[in-house]
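Dig into what follows:
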Amino acid sequence: MTELPALIAAFTTMFIIMDPPGLVPVFIALTQGMSAEQRRAIAVRACIVAGVLMILFLFVGEAVLGFIGISMDAFRIAGGILLFLTALDMLFQRRQARRADNAAEGQAEHQDDPSVFPLALPLIVGPGAITTIILLAGNATSAADFGAIAGVLMAVLLITFLAFLVAPTIERALGKTGLNIVTRVLGMLLAALAVQFVLDGLRGFGIGG
C-alpha cells in the first residue's frame, strides 16, 4: 500500500468519492450571506470533524465488520456496488440534487453552524467515503500502510478545505455547466473503480480467477 501506484489509486478513489468540486456549491449555499471569517471558521470545523471520523473508520471499521461476521471480500463486493450506484447518481446529477436537499434540511436545523451537519456528515464523510476507507484499510498490512492511507485521507481533506476557501472563485470560474462536466467525468472514473472493487471481491471467493 505504500507503493506509489497504490497511493495514487487510493488518492484518486477518495478524491472522486468526496468530490471537492461538487461540495463547492453546497458550501456556498450553506454559508450564503456570511463573512469571510465566518466561512473560514465553518470550513475549519467541518474538515476537523470529517478528519476525526475518517481516522476512526480507518482504524476500527474493519474490526466492526469482523465483530458482526462480515468478510472483507463480501464487503468489497457490497462496497463496489454502492460505489457504482454513487457513480450513477453523479452521472445523472441525482447526487447533486440529493446534496442540495440535505443541505437545505441541515440549514433549516442549523442555521448558525452547518459545519458538523450537514457539511462534515453526510456531505464530506458520506456512505461512499466510509465504504472506501474501510476497503482501503482492508488492504493495509502494516503500520506504514495505515499511515500512508491516513496521509492520503488528509491530503484529500486538505484539498476539500482549500476548495471551501476559494469556493466563490471556483463558482465564478467554472459556472454551473463547468461543475456539471467535472461531476460527470468523476462519475465515469468512479464507475470503473467500483467495478474493480467487485472483481477483487469475487477473486477473494475464487470466482473469475
Summary: The first helix runs from residue 4 to 18. The two ends are 22 Å apart (CA to CA). The mean pLDDT is 84. The chain has one domain: 4-204.
